What we know:
By secondary structure, the chain is mainly alpha-helical. It has 8 helices and 2 strands; from the N terminus they run E-E-H-H-H-H-H-H-H-H.
Amino acid sequence: MYYRPCTQSSGCCWHAKNARHLQPGSPAQAKVIKDPEHTGQSLKAKQGNHIAGNRETRLSPSGLDIKKRRCRITGIGPSRDKWQPPDLCPLRQKETLEDLNNRLAAYLEKVSLLEESNRHFERKIQDLCEKRANVSHDTSQYKKVIAEMETQINKLKMKNAELSLEVDNTKLTADNFKSKYKTELSLLQFITADIKEVKTTGSHLQMETDCLKVELQMLNEELSCLKKDHQEDIVKLQEDQSKCQVKVEVNSQPANDLTKALEEMREHYKVIVWSSNKKTEPWLVSKFRQCNYQNTMALEPLQTQKREVTLLRRTTQNLEAELENLHNLKASRMATLTETEQNYAAQLQRMQNIISRREDELAKTRAEFKQMSADGGILHYLKDLLEMEIKTYGQLMDAEEIRMDTSNGPLRTSTSKQMYMFLISEAMSITCKSLFIS
Length: 438
């Protein structure tokens, strides 16, 4: 049922769209005016029935919608006319009182509906509180898990920093090894060039020794040829001597002995050969010594260079092994690093999903609280309207009591006052409950 403020010139009162409540001669109005005590008793019974019925009803989310449909108020904005107290003329008091009695009955019905919706909301809030109490939001466990994960993250950050330092150190050592390898390679190239030069000098010396050996063989052959010719001459002379055996007896001086001459000749040749050998022997010895000295002088750096080459080969092999070990270590560290990054990315994704779910729940609760605050604003507005109407009703009741004191006596006054106090107490208690629930 919709209400709007009246702007008539005769007096300001609230008119309803329902024609039943606007007719002054309706039975409901007559019942309320003639017997207010009976009206109070019936209202109490009606409220008791509502309370007893609401104890057995379940939660219905459409309670607020019913309230909005049944209790929709127009004229809230600033463009509507303000509420004004009614004119308290004696001619209009009876009609106004009947209208207010009808409105009071409608308001009591609305109050019962509001009370029922408030009970629905109370039960709904209790159920939500029980659900939230059952679903405990104790974040101490999460805090412990988060603290442990933070400590693990810090430890892994320290490990990653150490690994990065180790990787940098290995890179620096690898660069140093590369520079050393380059220097050693250049030294090896220089040494190989020197070895080639030494080999060429050794080949030249070998050729000279071969030439000297050939000359020595030639001299030995000449000596053997001379000895052979000498033997042949001796043999020829002996043959000639054996063929020519002539005995000549001459009285002359004794002739020289041929054997003695041959022996002297042999001795003379021996002296010549010995002198030639003696002359050539120191030259050959000096040549051999010179060649041996040159060979030894050439072999010493060659041996030292061979030793250096072997040492360099060993160092290069060791460095290659160390470099391979460092590459393997780097690969294993990178694999562990990628694995830890993937694990922490998965953990971070899980935490982000949990946070997003919690944010969605928080947004839902905020929306519910906003809706409840809006409903509370509506209830506050209804409370203000009820207070204003109760005030006007009190003024009318006071005027009616003054009028009835003169006509009916103090009994009607006391009953009307009791009815008025009962209605005010019931309306205030219901509005306070609705505001407390909102």
